[in-house]
Amino acid sequence: MDEDLASFLRALEGERGVSPHTLAAYRRDVSRLIQFVRTLGVSTWGEVTTPVARRYVAHLDRRYARAAVARQLSALRTLFRYLYREGKVSRNPFTLVSAPKQPRRLPKFLTPAEITAVLGAPDPQTPLGLRDRALLEVLYATGLRVGELVTLPLRDVVPSDELRVLGKGRRERIVLMGGAAREALRRYIATARPALVRGRDPGMLFLNARGGSLTDRGVRFIVDRHIRAAAFGRRISPHVLRHTFATHLLDGGADLRSVQELLGHANLATTQIYTHVSRDWLKRVHDKAHPRA
Q: Would the pTM of this model clear 0.90, i.e. be above it?
């Protein structure tokens, strides 16, 4: 089973171009399943039946949030589709297993005043402060996912208002930056980044304090630190900056299709969730479309 997991991960990396972060999540999800079924005396994939699959999902439901269970179930369905294709199993035991129903949660976002406080939190007198300011400005200006941000090569960043990004499923898209993000990035690249390099330059745009490539975890730590410095008294993930980007675009008059393109969503339905948090956008649509508005 362990050898098949390794083959599965190689296939994901080669065929679908998943990010290292996503690959690590698949590894954890499948490893948890292997560990569980072995306690039942199961030693081959063919022995993982639908009743075993249901028992495992019930086991997950007692330990994880519903969103986490749904994500793991999706990963396991993908695994068994691969195993079926490779002739390792005759059916997918997770096909008939339903994920626990999730309550609808609207995206969290920051107000314009809050995002201004966060962007002003880093110390501009230090290399790390300049890096953090550039990082926060780019996240807010572009709506990049953290995985996209940390894999940006320095060579692809040119003095313009555009960044070329390789997103989910190796889909390439152009993201735009305003003047504030461009200036923060210019200052970081010109003065702060050279001060962070230690020995061989790894070539990524954003570096950590030791001169290596910044990781997803490092970005989360940076965002959390500056959120706390802005005295909000709550933990906010970097993804909230992506939500804020989308919400502020809609509030400013952007149409849904344009926001979909900028976010890199394959499906418009994914983008539509932001219409429920953008009251300004909904009001404009209502005022424009309703005959008695």
A: no
